[in-house]
Amino acid sequence: MLEASNNNELPVIPGKRYFTIGEVAELCGVKPHVLRYWEQEFPQLKPVKRRGNRRYYQRHDVIMIRQIRSLLYEQGFTIGGARQRLSGEEAKEDISQRQQMVRQMRVELEELLQILKR
């Protein structure tokens, strides 16, 4: 889903456990109201809700949002088509998603190594 060219324009996902809706909006290049709408349209997207109904997204949510963004904005899918594509791919993990995760882990490990060298 996420091609290398599309990943370069989006910032690296920081090594945090939870992200606010504002942080996710910046990381994925979409507005917060779009994220709230996508939650209604894509059953795979379920952020943790805490006090006052505040949303907290996890890393897998951010990766899923980037996939949805890629399907809708770069590949030209409709909401229904993207939903169908994602539900069909739930059973088999997409290769590019794995590559994204490996790249992210590599960045995090390099950051950790720099911290340990200090």
In short:
With 118 residues, the chain is mainly α.
Characteristic key phrases:
118 residues, mainly alpha, Multidrug-efflux Transporter Regulator, Chain: A, Domain 2, two-stranded antiparallel sheet, 6 helices, globular
Word description of this protein:
This protein is mainly α. The chain has a single domain, classed as Multidrug-efflux Transporter Regulator, Chain: A, Domain 2. It contains six helices and two strands. It has helices at residues 4-9, 21-28, 32-41, 59-74, 79-89, 95-117, and strands spanning 48-50, 54-56. The longest helix is centred in the last third of the chain and has 23 residues, at 95-117. The radius of gyration is 15 Å and the shape is globular. The model is unreliable at 1-7 (pLDDT under 50).
Low-pLDDT sequence parts: 1-7
Average pLDDT metric = 85
The share of residues in extended strands comes to: 5-15%
Main sheet attributes: strand count, strand direction, barrel closure = 2 strands, antiparallel
User: How many beta-strand runs?
Assistant: 2
Distance between the termini: 37 Å
**Biggest sheet: strand arrangement:** 1-2
